[in-house]
Structures are given as structure tokens and as C-alpha cells.
Amino acid sequence: MRLEGDSWREFFDAFRDYAFRLETLPVYGVASEDDEFRRFLAGEPRPDAELADSPWLHRVRRFTASGRRVERVHVVTPPLSDYLRYEMEWGYDFNIVAGEDVRILETDAPAELPFAVHQDFWLFDDTHVVLMRYEDDGTQIDRILLQDADVSDYIARKDAALRTATPYEKYRARLNT
């Protein structure tokens, strides 16, 4: 079943314990980020006040204030793309302050990781999987809720990713040295 617009937001917001995201792409084509990304590439200073007030961060704060967790692991292959540097400096820096647990798994050989890294997904409460499908350029195609799916493989991927990834703050500090 496709999840779009309000139905996606309502589904997402209904998780009880945690929402986990596995990201695998070096670039995501998000139209709402185009202006920010251009500003980042132009070397403009990061607009901290503007970025800290995003709707996503308000949601993350509400989730964490209610005792729910939002977790993310992004698998990256060096060197980091311009988009990944933007995503970290103008995104993840704020996500962690809002309460999201962001981790980075850097690898030269994604195929050698202890779990399959072939598609982005969200896993909710060890119960529901939503596949995130993208074009080659990172433009999102759709979100598909897997119905009546065996989620055990996705749970295993989540557990392995969280176990092997580096907490974002530690990864970012290493990049800055």
C-alpha cells in the first residue's frame, strides 16, 4: 500500500515505541531542500535559527518528549558527496539536538556489511516496514507499506546497523580533525 501526504504523516506519527530509518543513498533529491542546498554549496553561513525551527524537528521533539525514539543509520561510502556534507551540517547537527539518534556507518564496501544494504526503509515498532523507493538521482518515487510481511529481516538489519554504526557526534568530530 502506498503512503502519501496526510496518510503517510498519520501513519508515521502513530508509532508507539520507535521509528528507525536506514538510509543508503549518497544523495536525495528533495525539492524542498533545493534552496538550502544551493546556499550550502555557495558557502553561505548555516542559518542556525532557521534550521532549528523546522517542522521535522518539532515532530522529533514531540516524539522524544512522549518517550518515543527516532533512530537513523546512514550508510556512507567515502568520499562524502556534497549532499551528504550538507545533510550532516544543515540537518543531522540539528536532528540530534532535537533528540533523534543519528548514526553513520562508513564503509568502502557496502556489500561486505553484516546486513543487506540495498534499499532505504523505515521500521516502526518491530511491526511495520515502509520501503522508500528512489530514482537513480535520489528523487523519491514512493513509500510502500509492506502488508502481512515477515519483518524479521528488517529487525535484524536495524539491530546490526545500530550495533555497527558510529554515533553521529563521534563521526562528525572525527571528520573535523
State the secondary-structure class: alpha/beta
Q: What is the helix content?
A: 25-40%
Q: Poorly predicted ranges (pLDDT <50, ≥5 residues)?
A: none
Which percent band covers the strand fraction?
15-25%
Shape: globular
Major β-sheet, in short?
7 strands, mixed
Computed over alpha carbons, the radius of gyration is 16 Å
Number of helices: 7
Biggest sheet: strands side by side, in what order? 6-5-4-1-2-3-7
Quote the distance from N terminus to C terminus: 45 Å
Order of helices and strands: HEHHHEHEEEEHEH
* Average of pLDDT: 94
Strand segment tally: 7
Question: Can you walk me through this structure?
Answer:
Helix 2 (34-41) crosses helix 5. The termini are far apart. A seven-stranded mixed sheet has the order 6-5-4-1-2-3-7, sandwiched between helices. The chain is globular and about 45 Å long. 40% of the residues lie in helices and 23% in strands. The chain has seven helices and seven strands; from the N terminus they run H-E-H-H-H-E-H-E-E-E-E-H-E-H.
Keywords:
177 residues; seven-stranded mixed β-sheet; 7 helices; 23% strand
How would you sum up this structure in a few lines?
This protein has 177 residues and is of the alpha/beta class. The protein has seven helices and seven strands; from the N terminus they run αβαααβαββββαβα. The mean pLDDT is 94.
Detail the topology: elements first, then pairings.
Blueprint: H1 5-13, E1 18-23, H2 34-41, H3 48-51, H4 55-65, E2 69-76, H5 82-98, E3 101-106, E4 120-124, E5 128-134, E6 140-145, H6 152-164, E7 166-167, H7 168-175
Parallel strand pairs: 1-2, 2-3
Antiparallel strand pairs: 1-4, 3-7, 4-5, 5-6
Helix pairs in contact: 2-5
